[in-house]
Inverse folding.
């Protein structure tokens, strides 16, 4: 019996749960983790794959948010910086420090004095790593392709980056190891009410069609940008303002940056950044109202892509970038609480917790502060008695006795951060040649085998876009690697040839819709892999 079948049997036979969490992004898995840590019987359900929404489509930053300081949101920045430091301490290899360069030019609205004041506060909130003022010559040395005209200097400061989908999975599997239950591709068909209050859910397996009722002492709506859909069932007024953030990924040779560089768009002056991530250069981000249906996965528009590349060309004029140079794109929808501000970037990123007829909705907030949000959410649950808020816990560490074979120190650190206690099993499962890197990525072939074997993969898209990110990192959605992926993973997944062909076609079609760079008709792109083709 597969783990999925075992979990469905457990859900079918289980009495009332203490908590049912709806939503498998970072907020939902954080709440599951915290509830389980406090001794509650907790179940999480996600209608698609874990981390398939916003939590695999973020800017990959674990940061305090300097722009929130500029907006006067000291509380949010303070909590974010403190959580950044905790995650750096507890998850090395998954959450890693990254230097940021901020350039200053003559006539900037945000002058050096204001920059310096904000960075001093940033330092004060953090753990002692101080920002550094830079001369124009310093910046030219650190970012030699940066525009030099009217450059007066700038600053260096430190933040952190992560693999957002792997962070979700690390938190999820820690919770499962402590006794929690979780199901992906499981939709909440209906909220069950007793005497006018939510007391459970009707679940339907999207893969088989089976359905079951799950009663619960508390039901948490952690569906992010989708939260209003469930809230409508308790007659709550819509409050979410979905905002789309889009990104482009370029080969590092085409857009070389040694560390993160922030800059402003030459037309509307909104901030953007470019930084190295997983061997590529990530360019982001936009902040637009997302008017399309949330049932359709978001994708970057050609206007967004052109605008971002226009800004990058202005900041790095010698590179002559084009949209067609990108390897891939992605877009996510942020769950922001709407207050009617004209500029979506001015909306607060604070989280909210509402209890509406027993449905506890947790939405808004930042990836960085997911644990603080989870602690507050679990503390707010009405479970018929007092519950002491537990002290902060730490994530489980990998065993010290791991046979690493030929892996170097950076590869060991990376694996230990992403897989924690499961690192030895991953390394031991590797067959000949599988501890080598997948071309164009930092990922190892063995990670694919491990994910296919134990990480609850239902579709090929789960494997290539979230468990191992090669669908974003390798040209054409990693189409040239699909035969090798098949040789490693097909038997682990238990798929016959027909199922593999079906999954490969569906994955490539999905990649083309969501991640292929828009056509740039104004330029001839640099040579790169052609559009994906079917591989059966």
């Amino acid at each position: 019996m597969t783990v999925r079948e075992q979990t469905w049997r457990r859900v079918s036979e289980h009495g009332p749960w203490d908590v049912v969490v709806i939503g498998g992004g970072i907020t939902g898995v954080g709440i599951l983790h915290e509830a389980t840590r406090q001794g509650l019987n907790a179940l999480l359900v996600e209608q698609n794959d874990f981390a398939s929404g916003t939590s695999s489509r973020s800017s990959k930053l674990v940061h305090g948010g300097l722009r929130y300081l500029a907006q006067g949101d000291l509380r949010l920045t303070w909590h974010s910086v403190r959580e950044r430091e905790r995650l750096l301490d507890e998850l090395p290899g998954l959450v890693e420090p990254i230097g940021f360069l901020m350039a200053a030019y003559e006539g900037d609205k945000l002058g050096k004095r204001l920059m310096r004041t904000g960075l001093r506060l940033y330092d004060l909130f953090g753990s002692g790593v101080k920002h550094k003022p830079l001369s124009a010559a310093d910046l030219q040395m650190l970012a030699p392709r940066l525009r030099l005209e009217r450059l007066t200097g700038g600053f260096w400061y430190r933040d952190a980056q992560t693999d957002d989908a792997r962070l979700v999975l690390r938190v999820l599997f820690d919770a499962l190891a402590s006794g929690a239950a979780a199901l992906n591709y499981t939709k909440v068909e209906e909220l069950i009410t007793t005497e006018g209050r939510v007391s459970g859910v009707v679940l339907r397996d999207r893969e088989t069609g089976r359905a079951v009722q799950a009663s619960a002492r508390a039901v948490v709506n952690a569906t992010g940008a989708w939260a209003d859909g469930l809230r409508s069932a308790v007659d709550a007024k819509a409050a979410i303002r979905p905002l789309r953030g889009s990104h482009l990924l370029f080969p590092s040779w085409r857009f070389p940056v040694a560390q993160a560089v922030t800059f402003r768009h030459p037309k509307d002056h909104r901030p953007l950044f470019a930084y190295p991530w997983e061997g590529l250069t990530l360019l982001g981000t936009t902040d637009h109202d997302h008017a399309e249906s949330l049932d359709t996965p978001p994708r970057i528009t050609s206007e967004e892509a052109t605008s971002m590349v226009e800004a990058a060309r202005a900041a790095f004029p010698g590179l002559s970038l084009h949209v067609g140079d990108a390897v891939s794109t992605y877009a996510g929808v942020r769950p922001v609480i709407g207050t009617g501000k004209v500029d979506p970037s001015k909306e607060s990123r604070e989280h909210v917790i509402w209890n509406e007829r027993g449905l506890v909705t947790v939405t808004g907030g930042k990836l960085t502060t997911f644990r603080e949000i989870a602690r507050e959410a679990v503390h707010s649950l009405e479970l018929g008695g007092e519950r002491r808020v537990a002290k902060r816990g730490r994530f489980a560490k990998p065993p010290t006795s791991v046979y690493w074979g030929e892996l170097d120190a950076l590869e060991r650190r990376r694996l230990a951060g992403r897989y924690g206690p499961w690192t030895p099993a991953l390394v031991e499962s590797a067959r000949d040649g599988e501890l080598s890197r997948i071309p164009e990525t930092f990922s190892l072939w063995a990670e694919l085998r491990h994910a296919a074997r134990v990480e609850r993969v239902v579709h090929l898209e789960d494997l290539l876009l979230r468990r191992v990110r090669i669908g974003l990192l390798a040209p054409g959605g990693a189409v040239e690697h699909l035969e090798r992926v098949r040789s490693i993973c097909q038997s682990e997944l238990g798929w016959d040839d027909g199922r593999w062909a079906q999954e490969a076609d569906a994955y490539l079609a999905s990649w083309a819709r969501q991640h292929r760079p828009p056509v740039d008709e104004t330029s001839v792109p640099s040579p790169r892999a052609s559009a994906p083709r079917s591989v059966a």
Q: What stands out?
A: The two ends are 27 Å apart (CA to CA).
